[in-house]
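FAQ: What does the model actually see?

It sees only this:
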Amino acid sequence: MKPAKATEEPAPSSATSPEKTNKAELVETLIGKVEQKLVERGEVKASVGDYIKLVQLHKELQDEEAQDIEVRWIDPAKREEEEPDKGT
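And it is asked to produce this:
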């Protein structure tokens, strides 16, 4: 049995996307190929363990993407006016 080639089709890439996104896209492509072989063709060159590892890696790479963070500015002068003087 020959091992499956990971470089059969290049992963779609963008000049502005970071390296992690490219890795995530490559993993997503590999997951699709494994799923196709497992479901449609009945050929199993990759094990179920390989499939699970790919899915876990894909999730980890997506979790590392930047997330929106909301920041609110509280004016210290207004805050002092709103809070009563605490014992001083």
